[in-house]
Amino acid sequence: MAKDQYKYFRIEARELIDGMGRAVLELEHGSGDSIAEPVARILRMAHTLKGASRIVKQPGIADSAHEIEDIFGRYRYKEGRVAAEDTNRALQILDGVATKLAALDAPAGTAIALPPPAIGQTPGISGGQVRAENARVSPSASETRRAPQAAATVARDDGFETVRIELDEVDDLLNGVAETSVQLTALRHEIENLERARRLANSVAGTFARHTNFETEATGYVVSRSRTLNAVEELQQQLERVTRNLSGGVQQVSAELEQVRESANFLRLLPASAIFSPLDRAARDAAQSLGKQVRFAATGGSIRLDAHVLTGLREALLHIVRNCVAHGIEIPAERLAAGKEASGAIRLTIEMRGNDVVFACRDDGRGIDVDSIRRTAIQRGLLSPSAGAALDVDGAIQLILRGGFTTKNSVDEISGRGIGLDAAREVAERLKGQLELRSEPGAGTTIEIRVPVSLSALMALEVESANTVAAIPISAVRRTVRIAASDVARTVESETILFDGEPVPFLPLNSALTSAVFASHDTKRQAWSAVIVESSEGRAAIAVDRLRAAANIVVRPLPRSARSSALVSGASLNAEGDPQLLLDPAALVARAWRAQARDAEPAAKKRACVLVIDDSLTTRMLEQSILESAGYEVEVATSAEEGLEKARARQYGLFLVDVEMPGMNGFEFVSRTRADARLGKTPAILVTSRNAPEDRRRGEQAGASAYIVKGEFDQNYLLRMTKELVG
Q1: DSSP alpha helices (H): ranges in 30-121?
Q2: DSSP assignments along 207-265, one per residue
Q3: Domain at 64, CATH number
Q4: Same domain (yes/no): 580, 461
Q5: Which strand (E) or helix (H) includes residue 276?
Q6: Which one, of 446, 428, 429, lies nearest residue 437 by Cα?
Q7: β-strands 304-306, 269-271: how paired?
């Protein structure tokens, strides 16, 4: 059976054509007070169609979408009406695209696409109708009230069908399962009543059996002992049979309902990995068209999300990935000159944070060009020259996130109209989420979309601690290890172990959660099972009593009224229907690191304040905990620039400075402070992974009082040097 390479493209393109047709007609009819919204909608859909067409190698359709962009790009900042010749031409183009789409060959065994319909009507489908490549099915009354929101593929002997699944109907099914479960609970109570009746019958039968001479008159009738005993025994047998059959039937129905519930939950969820391939291809094609080299990588694909959430995010992420290639990644020659690899890197990370799912797309390109944004903003009258002179990175980001802003002087196949980020932000807002952009000059840009999810599924590692079972997302688990008591380094501040040659905080799970169901930490234990959990904040070793198994779980958010630990991000139901906690990896790691400072023994008196400057959270927290346990007050800075600002604001007894940091490095920080009349009196210790003689000499020339190599890090040496320099 031949593979239908255009199966999903036909579905997406038909929806885009339909949406653009409706918007064009809306403009032609003059409905609404402003043309801005329908024009922006057309531009976003045309931009998406153009990118999708390039991916499946349909340049004719892509050129048509590009022409649509040319027509309506002129109206983005205009008011009034769109010229009739422009709407007529747009409708003609969309008719042509529909014709091209219908002409795409389907594989053997599958009927060819239906002829293109009139513009404004989706080809071969209406309303909430079930969509299939092989057949046209008339919608029911309920289907026409709902818009299709999710897709699923069903294998068949004669080909593949792509069917639109109604999420509302799946939800109705789930609600029906829940209601049936409630009724089953009521039946279980009735079974208990039957059981009580059976026990009563047994008691009556026993009474009759013990009395050999039993005869009574009731309403004039004489009842013999034998007849009464036979009746009671028959009642006893009937009650026993009904109880047994009903109990077994309820249990079977309950198990099957649970299976239906689980299947329905997974039916309405899609794995995040479903969007990885088109994003990878989009990055590749965009890079090829611009003469660049790009590597795309993604993690977190096992997380399953509501289909409408993932579908919307796919659209947004396609824009973001292309934006990273066009505006972030440099050409190979420029990257090599900057000391980077010729091939740029784009990495997508998907993770659960509390009740939200976070899609973070990071590139290692040039970062935001503030100067270019400043020039463009001034040229377009968005900023005055004086305001432009004061523009910083944060201000530049705000300009970029405004709709339609672009620094490109010409439009190409990838970018040039400022639509990409605008579309991504619109998707995030539609999903009641938010888009955040961060950038470091020369180091790259991170675009993060965070949206709440009502239902998700993921692979998780189940662990047991203090007779409580909890789950940790498997995407955050780096390794499971066995920890002996001798492997745990106990200091005044906390407990740590070595993992991959680096110290990480050691935190027993049963002492991490404040819920009363967790027991206190047993310090006399000889060994633990531990899970090395990693998040964007670092790593931590979480000790548990027992590792259970990895399992796919469906996660629901906790009700707002439910009071729970900040470490708990949601709950799922196990096979018995009991709730099971899902732990937040980022919160676990943060809790482990905070424990070092919070659990420290109070110092007798505070000594001089030390400013720790390092862009690594792990190093900052380790050095801070060591110094605070020795009685020093500690403040931290994540960059040399921030450290210099803090140093000018108050008096410190010592600077503990990392050498390799983005922007200003440690050598430059020490040199600047030595040149300052006030700051030059504060000693500085450089901490670095560089151990070459020339690096040590450079540190001495900069004016550092001591030089510590991370690979040879010794907390006793650090404390001794700190004491010598500041007392």
Answers
A1: 36-55, 59-73, 84-103
A2: HHHH-SS-EEEETTEEEEHHHHHHHHHHHHHHHHHHHHHHHHHHHHHHHHHHHHHHHHH
A3: 1.20.120.160
A4: yes
A5: helix 276-289
A6: 446
A7: antiparallel
When comparing pLDDT for 60 and 495, which is higher?
A: 60
Question: What would the two tokens of residue 427 be?
Answer: 């998707």
The answer to whether 439 and 542 have CB atoms below 8 angstroms apart is no
Burial class (CB in 10 A: 0-12, 13-18, 19+), 616: middle
Residue type, position 274, single letter: A
What 3-state class would DSSP assign to 579?
strand
* CA 567 to chain CA centroid, nearest Å: 16
Q: Which residue, among 387, 407, 405, has the nearest Cα to 395 in the 3D structure?
A: 387
The parent domain of residue 518 ranges over 456-596
- For 426-478, give the DSSP string: HHHHHTT-EEEEEEETTTEEEEEEEEE-S-EEEEEEEEEETTEEEEEEGGGEE
pLDDT at 225: 63
Structural domain ending residue among the three candidates 434, 452, 470: 452
Q: Does the structure show a pLDDT above 90 at 564? A: no
Total number of domains in the chain: 5
Q: What is the pLDDT of residue 694?
A: 84
285 in a domain, yes or no?
Answer: no
Tell me, what's the pLDDT at 624?
Answer: 84
* pTM > 0.70: yes or no: no
| Residue 272 resides in a domain | no
Cα dihedral sign, 337-343-344-349: negative
